[in-house]
Amino acid sequence: MDKEIKTYSMSIRVSQEELEKLKMAARLEAYASYSEFVRRTALLEASKIISENNAKENQ
Fold first, then answer.
1. Alpha-carbon distance 48 to 38, whole Å?
2. Mean pLDDT (whole number) for 49-57
3. pTM higher than 0.70 for the full model?
């Protein structure tokens, strides 16, 4: 039996200036869209925080 893959959406509030920075960074990093840039960047940061927390707990 195949597991159904669920996706979720979320929204964030940003100023016009912040949105322009996100769009520029996405273009510079050659992402398909600024939302993809935000998603991947947030996931990288989340993984980093989780790893750091796990390291602290294992000390």
1. 15
2. 94
3. yes
